C-alpha cells in the first residue's frame, strides 16, 4: 500500500522547504512546478499552444519559454491565466498521474505530491491526506517580495491569483505552521512523519 500525501500552501508559503526535508529522508517527491516546466520544453505541444496563443514574443532567443514574461502577463490578467491553465492542466495532470503510478509500482510506502494548486485542480480527491504549509498573509507577502524581488502590488496579485490560504488551512488534514523558524517547521513535519501510518 502506498500512502500519497498532498503538500500544498500558497505561493512562497514554504512548500519547497518541506519537500526538501522529505527528500532528505529518501521519500519521493513529485513537484508539480517541475512537471509544469517539463510540459513546456522546446518542441512540446504545450509550448506550441502557448506560442499560438501568446505569440512568438513569449520565447527567448534560444526558443525556450520566457517564464518571467509569461508570469508577468498571467498574474496581471485573470483571463490569460485561466487560458494558460486550460492549455497546460490536462498535460500536467497526465504527467503527475503517470509519476504516481510509477512510484506505486515500485511499492513506495509514502509519496509526496508538492502542488501549489492542489485544491484548485481537484487533486485533493486523489491524495490520501492533504498537508497545508501555512503562514499568515503578511509573512507570505514579505517572503515572496524578498525571494522574487517583487513590489508589494505585484506580490499581492500573485497571492490573490490563488485560493485564500486561510481557506486551504480550513480544508487541510494536517496544518504545518511555517511562520516561525525553519527548524520549528521541520520539527512539525518530522512529528507527522513519525506518526503518519
Ligand atoms: C507562469 C510561469 C511560466 C512562471 O514561471 P516561474 O518559473 O517564474 O515560476 P514557477 O513555475 O516556479 O511558479 C512559482 C509559483 O507561482 C505560482 N503559480 C504558478 N502558476 C500559477 C497559476 N497558473 N495560478 C496560480 N499560481 C500559479 C505557484 O505558487 C508556483 O509555485 C509558470 O508558473 C507556469 O507555467 N504556470 C502555469 C502552470 C501551472 O499552473 N503551474 C502550477 C503548478 S501545477
Ligand atoms: N520558516 C522560514 N523562515 C524564514 N524564511 C523562510 C521560511 N520558510 C521558507 N522561507 C523562505 O521563504 C521563501 C519561500 O519559501 P519556499 O520557496 O519554500 O516556498 P514555496 O511554497 O515552495 O514557494 P512557491 O509556491 O513559489 O514554489 C524562500 O525564500 C524560503 O527560503
Automatic annotation (TrEMBL):
Catalytic reaction annotation: 3'-dephospho-CoA + ATP = ADP + CoA + H(+)
Places the protein is found: Cytoplasm
Entry-linked InterPro entries: Depp_CoAkinase, P-loop_NTPase
Function: Catalyzes the phosphorylation of the 3'-hydroxyl group of dephosphocoenzyme A to form coenzyme A.
Name of this chain's protein: Dephospho-CoA kinase
Keyword Nucleotide-binding attached: yes
Family membership noted in the UniProt record: Belongs to the CoaE family.
Annotated pathway: Cofactor biosynthesis; coenzyme A biosynthesis; CoA from (R)-pantothenate: step 5/5
Keyword Nucleotidyltransferase attributed: no
Keywords associated with the record: ATP-binding, Coenzyme A biosynthesis, Cytoplasm, Kinase, Nucleotide-binding, Transferase
Coiled-coil region list: none
Leading EC class: transferase
One Pfam family of this chain: CoaE
Primary localization class, coarse: cytoplasm
EC number: 2.7.1.24
PANTHER family for this protein: BIFUNCTIONAL COENZYME A SYNTHASE-RELATED (PTHR10695:SF46), DEPHOSPHO-COA KINASE-RELATED (PTHR10695)
GO terms, molecular function: dephospho-CoA kinase activity
Amino acid at each position: 500500500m502506498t500512502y500519497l500525501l498532498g503538500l500544498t500552501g500558497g505561493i512562497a508559503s514554504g512548500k519547497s522547504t518541506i519537500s526538501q526535508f522529505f527528500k532528505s529522508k529518501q521519500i519521493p517527491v513529485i513537484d508539480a512546478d517541475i512537471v509544469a516546466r517539463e510540459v513546456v520544453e522546446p518542441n512540446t505541444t504545450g509550448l506550441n499552444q502557448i506560442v499560438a496563443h501568446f505569440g512568438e514574443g513569449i520565447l527567448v532567443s534560444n526558443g525556450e519559454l520566457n517564464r518571467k514574461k509569461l508570469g508577468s502577463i498571467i498574474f496581471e490578467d485573470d483571463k490569460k491565466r485561466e487560458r494558460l491553465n486550460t492549455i497546460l492542466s490536462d498535460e500536467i495532470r497526465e504527467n503527475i498521474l503517470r509519476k504516481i503510478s510509477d512510484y506505486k509500482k515500485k511499492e513506495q510506502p509514502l509519496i509526496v505530491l508538492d502542488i501549489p494548486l492542489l485544491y484548485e485542480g481537484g487533486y485533493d480527491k486523489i491524495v490520501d491526506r492533504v498537508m497545508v504549509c501555512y503562514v499568515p498573509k503578511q509573512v507570505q507577502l514579505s517572503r515572496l517580495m524578498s525571494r522574487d524581488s517583487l513590489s508589494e502590488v505585484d506580490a499581492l496579485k500573485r497571492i490573490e491569483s490563488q485560493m485564500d490560504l486561510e481557506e486551504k488551512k480550513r480544508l487541510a488534514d494536517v496544518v504545518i505552521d511555517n511562520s516561525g523558524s525553519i527548524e520549528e517547521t521541520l520539527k512539525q513535519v518530522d512529528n507527522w512523519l513519525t506518526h503518519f501510518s
